Fold this protein.
Amino acid sequence: MCRESDGSSFWRVFEDCKSRLSIMETSVSLIKIAIVGPESTGKSTISEALARHYDTVCVPEYAREYCRNLDRQYTLQDELNIFYGQVALERSLRPLARHGLLFCDTTFLTVKVWCDHLFGHTPSEVLQALTEVQYDYYLLMDIDLPWEDDPLRDFPEDREHFMEIWRTELRAIGADFEEVSGLGAQRFENALAATERFLRRNRRR
């Protein structure tokens, strides 16, 4: 979650792309694996480590750059901006993916989680995109990691609540997902093992 926006480079990329952005997926043979979950569960660390292991690209979380210098009240429009920015960022990095794999450090499903929690509803653009933009596999990070304070994190007491929300949201879209737990290096090993299991299944199709 975050608290506001400035004229960051990510924001400029968003403005350049927004007017011509089509959120419908293009027919490219690319496996997209999303790393998602509640706050402070190691999503960015695992996403980057998996991308390094498979020698490919990790799409970073747009919201962190958007929110980094926010100093005003957070709004629903901010969430919509983050939605468009995340989609535009992913589309801009797709051509750089190698070996047919792209890892995503969260997705705009996070926007729905926060919109519902903070504002009681989600913009129709986001709901429509959830039926159009597909990810092949999700790694849902467990809340077994100790909480780490961060200016962009807000709900240390509600981790179990949000973990259950993530399970519910992934099931609602029919996502293929596996939960990943473990401390230290074991967390990456578990994420890697889950990814390998998925890739083996995918090759047999």
User: Anything to note?
Assistant: The radius of gyration is 16 Å. Strands lie at 31-36, 57-59, 101-105, 137-141, 177-180.
